Structure formats: C-alpha cells, structure tokens
Amino acid sequence: MMEPAGGVSISTSLAICNRRLSLTAATNIRHRQGRSRMRGFILLGCLALAVQTAWAEIDVDFTVDTETTLHQISPLIYGANGQALETATARRIGGNRLTGYNWENNASHAGADWYHQNDNYMPWIMGIDPSQYEEPGIVLTTFHDISLAHNAYSLITLQMAGYAARDKDGVVDESETAPSPRWTEVINRKPGAFAHPPDTADGGLYIDEMLNYLLETYGSGAGPTGIKAYALDNEPALWPYTHPRIFPEALTVAELLERSIGLSHTIKSMDPTAETFGPCLYGFNAFYNLQNAPDWNEYSGNYNRFIETYLDYMRAASDTAGMRLLDVLDVHWYPEPSGVYSGDTTRAVAEVRMQVTRSLWDSTYVEPSWIGQWFSPVRIIPYLQGAIDNYYPDTKLAVTEYDYGAPDHISGGLAQVDALGIFGRYRLYFASKWGAVSEYIEAAYKLYRDGDGAGMCFGDQCLPAATSDIENSAIYAAHAGTDSLHLILINRNYDEVMAGHFTLDGAAAYSHGESWAITRSDTLIHSGAAVEIADGRTFDFSLPPLSAHHLVLHRESSDVVTSDPLRAVPTGISIQPHPVRSILHLAYPEEISCAGRVSIHDISGRKLREVSNPTGINPLVIDDLALAPGTYFLRVVAGDRRFTRKLVMAE
User: Fold this and answer.
1) Inter-CA distances, 379 with 444, 475, 507, Å
2) pLDDT digit string, tens, across residues 196-214
3) Helix residue ranges, H only, 243-379
4) Phi, psi of 158, deg, nearest 5
5) In whole angstroms, what separates CA 575 from the centre of its chain?
6) High-pLDDT (> 70) share of the chain, %
7) Which residues are paired to 527 by β-bridges?
C-alpha cells in the first residue's frame, strides 16, 4: 500500500471472490486523514458511564487468572505506518511507493496507484524542503530521525523488484517498461568501493551502499540510534498489478525465494544485528498460493500453502548460510467483508466490522466473505504461529499493514481496540496500522498507551482472561509490575448495557480500581466509574452499549488489623487503637485530605456499615461497631487515597 502521510492516495485493491481464487482488480481511492484534532479527557460522574437506564441489559461473566503470566506483550504492536504519534512505539516506511524508490535521488514510482508516474512524491509527502529533494537518502534519514525523536522502532522497506525510478519526469508509458532509460537497476552488492554521495552514473542502485550510508550515519541496529529492521520489499505477489512497468509478469515461487534469500543475505552481511521482515504478503491468496504463482504446483505436493513453503526454504537457506536470514514473518491483513475497509458506517456493516476481528483468532467464527465461505475457520494468527512452529521455529510474527476502517465511527474505534488486544494476547512481535491514526482510532491507541492523559499504559505481562459472550464482548488482561492489574473491556452491542460480573482467580486480592472509557458520544477518553472490590476477588462493572474501557485494579495490603494497637498503613493513614472494644479511630496526616468515607464488609463482600465523612472530620471515630468475632474488610476512601484492610475482631 502507499505510504500514508497526509493528502490523498490511490491504491489497487484486489478482491478474490470465487472458489478458484481468481483475481479481479478494483481500484479504490483511500483518503488519508490529516492531523487529528486535539484530544482531551473529561471527568464524568460514576453513574454517567456505569448506569444507562434507557437501555436493556445483558449479563456477561468475565474471569481473569491473575497468577499465570502467559508471555511478555511486545511493545512494538502499537505501531503505525509513517505517521509520528506520541503513542506509537514503532514506525514503518513501506507501501507501494517504496518498491520503486531510488535512495540516490529520492525519486519513486507510483505504479497503478497514480498513472504509473515517476516523481518527487516521497520527499514531498515527508515534508522535506524542496531544496533538499536531491539529497541522497534524505527520505530515509528524515523518517528515522522522526522515529528517534519519538523513541520508536524503525522498519525500513528495501527494494527487491529489480528496478527503481531513475527520473522524476512523470508518466512512464508501457513502451518504457523496465529495462529502459526511465529505470535504474537495483543490485544487492556493489562490485567496487562504496561512495558518498553515490555515483548516479555507475549503472546501478546498490543496496549494500545504501545500508553502508545508513550504518555510518546511525550505527548498527544494536546501537541506541541504529535502524532496527529492514523489510524485503512490499506485497510482491501484486507487483504485476501495482507495478507493471517494473515487474510485468507473474511472480514465481522460485523467483521470490531467490530474491528474498539474496536480499536477506546482503542485509545480514552489512548489519548482523538488524532484523529482516518478509515476505510482506498482501493477504490470503498470497499466503495460499502466491497469487496463483505459475510454478506453485511444483511445491504444492509438499506444502498446503505458500507461506509454509516460504518459511521452510528460508530456514534451509539460513542453515546453509550459517545465520538466520528471516527474523520476522511479515504479512498484511485487511478485512474482506463488503463495506468494512471502505468505511461504511451503516449499522449492518458496523456490526460486521466489530465482529470480523475474530477472524484473527476465533475458530468458531465464520466471516461473511469468500475467505469465510471456503476457508473457515480462518483464525489467521494461530495458523501463522503454527506454520512458524512447524517450519521455522522462533521466527517472530508481524502484521505490518491492517485497517478496519471507519475512523470517524465508534465501530472503527472498537475494532481497533480489539485488534490491539488480540495482537498482545497472540504474541505478535510487531504491528503497524495502515492509514491515519485519527479520531476513534487514535482514541483506541490512547486507551492502551495514555489512558489517563498522564502516560498510563496497559500492562506488558499477558494474563489469561475469558468472557462468557464472545459475540458481544471482549476482555484482555495484563499485569504492570507487581501491584496493578489492567483490563481492557469491550461492549460491541448496539443497544444493551453489559452488566459485567468479574472473577479474579489467584492468591492476590484487589481492593479498588479506576476506569477510563471510549463511548459513541465522542472521540474523547472519559474518566469513568470507580471500581470497588469488597472481597478482593469479585466485582460488578457496567459497560454502556458500544464502549471500550481500561480498568486498573490495585492490590490490597496483607496487613491484618487485630486487637493490638494498630500500625500506620502505607497510605499514611493510621487506625487506632482497639476494635475489640467496638470503637474504630482513624487519624489522617495533615497533608492528606480526609474527606471521604469508610465502609465495613463481611467476608462475602456484603456491606455492613458505611460512614460518610464529607467535611473531613479528623480524627474520625466510629463507635458501636457491633461486630461478632471474625474477619471483616475495612475500606477507607480519604481524598485521593484508597485502601482495604482485613479487620479481625477478637473474642
């Protein structure tokens, strides 16, 4: 796809609609979103998000295993294509324009996206001063400098189709198809010494010379400023459709394998620490048989799908080379059901948009498309992970282009929230959304990466979590450190409030929490209802229709209140002296606002008594507790401090 950095671009969308997987081409215009307007955070009362009496209600049970860490969530799943975001952890420069990009003069080729012309699009779209358009490599250095400024991982696409634009002189006629004077041959290794600036009359564009320039400028990928990864071109199965002036004939399996091995070897010989991403396939039919590759039958007897062939041959080539040539299996994934990607926000399409993310993982889901009709269950991420395990173990997985559309509609935001949660749960290493991250899409990123407006991020230790209703809801759970439990919750039902009943399985007890939410009212993140967990392990929480929530739950201390004089608790609030005498005495340090409330709960979580302290009486004395001997929970809210302690009443 074309590099999204503002303005309007045209890309060729390929729909494969019959059982024989024949290709039909259709051209879609993608409008790139401009810079998003400023986002804010609005404080709402607890009832504004938690109670919506105008709607019906559905009950859903959620469970979280707080003891079992499945894996570390890669920080690189919160990536973008080209766009510089405060919340983006990774950036990719890729798309159709990079296939014909010439680093020596920054010319590139539009292909079928825009009249097959050579031009200055790349430096222009990057915002580079026109006086610098001819400076070698400035598109790549500008991109990476922005990544460094945002502390983001850079993935740079290299050329593998054989030719790059030599000039910027506009439309390339069919009669000027490569090789012709309009093109420079792309060669992996230069036969002579490297030069800078490069010699534009030496007969080739040399990949190793470009890599040498980047290494001299930034250091290796292992260093603090180095470029971390390189991609083996972009969507090669579509070259005859997107770039017929560069690569007019159908790509064969043998050609792609040879080109991939050769370019990977060049990258690793220049920078062994850099990661290689490939084969950057556009979608299912490329995974299946490399877009009906002419020589697929020579391989299909040993492999069910081309992606398995690719992994096995890259593994064998790595064994021969004595080094890993493919670090990351790189694919693109766009929704096929009609209207989803194009941004249709009618209710019928919006409901499909919020469900079709299940094709990423769910073996019970049949998406309404030709893929769902003929290849269910799709569950594409588990399939790809299984292929990796079988053919090239320890290869990482990336989805470097995806887009569920509708950035201006809550359904687009909820699909994005769901996708990010799925990527974390299913061990993706890298993901970068295609197109502008704006409006509801930006809110989805912020829900994970800046939920409270002060840098609060979703945890990085993935935990098992389940819902009793996968059609209407989703849940993702993670620890952040040792004290906080993060939950991402989604209600994709259009009409009904979701009454969530939560069970936290594990030894740790949690006392309280906060929430933030995206709703259909606007694209802002709202501070929502507080969470009270009386027994430490179960609680209820309501989700309005079409909303996503980020809950942060806090562990309670293991301190036990006995009939002895009580110790000061970590919050700075002290409890004095003898609950056995049915008197409780709470004293607050001067620096703590003591306005709040105190409640007492039995072991089942049932509230027995609550005392409000709206005027901030200090110390607060609660008399006549009238509690039988046993164990209780004492919950204190004092200003911005909250805690729960066990209270043991002696005989």
Assistant:
1) 23, 18, 33
2) 999 999 989 999 999 999 9
3) 253-270, 284-289, 306-321, 347-356, 370-375
4) -105, 165
5) 45
6) 81
7) 43, 516
Residue 580 CA to residue 625 CA, distance in Å, equals 9
Beta bridge partners of 105: none
508-536 mean pLDDT: 95
Active site residues: 235
Residue 297 makes CB contacts below 8 A (sequence gap 6+) with none
Residue 109, token pair as written in the block: 């080729």
Q: Is 242 helix (H, G, I), strand (E, B) or coil?
A: helix
520: CB partners within 8 A, 6+ apart: 410, 545, 546, 547
Q: What average pLDDT does this structure show over 135-158?
A: 98
> Is residue 10's pLDDT more than 70?
no
CA angle 544, 550, 556 (to 5 degrees): 115
| Domains of the chain with CATH codes | 8-32+77-100+146-154+173-182+210-453 (3.20.20.80), 41-73+458-556 (2.60.40.1180), 560-649 (2.60.40.3080)
Q: In this model, does residue 131 exceed pLDDT 50?
A: yes
Write out pLDDT tens, residues 544-602.
999 999 999 999 753 333 333 333 333 445 554 344 456 666 676 665 556 677 777 66
Pairing assessment for the beta strands 574-576 and 607-613 based on DSSP bridges: unpaired
Q: List % helix, strand, coil for the chain (3-state, nearest 5).
A: 25, 30, 45
| pTM for this model (two decimals) | 0.80
| Rounded distance between C-alpha atoms, residue 490 and residue 538, angstroms | 19
Residue with tokens 């201390």: 557
Q: Let me know: does 60 contact 469? Beta carbons within 8 Å.
A: yes
Distance CA 631, CA 646 (A): 7
In this structure, what DSSP letter does residue 239 have? Answer: H
Q: How far apart are CA 576 and CA 586, in angstroms?
A: 6
pLDDT, tens digit (0-9, with 9 covering 90-100), for 170-206: 999 999 999 999 999 999 999 999 999 999 999 899 9
Report the DSSP beta bridge partners of residue 583.
Answer: 623
Q: What is the pLDDT of residue 563?
A: 33
Work out the end-to-end distance of the chain between its first and last CA atoms, rounded to an integer number of angstroms. 74
How confident is the model over 135-157, as a mean pLDDT? 98
Other CB atoms within 10 A of residue 649 CB: 17
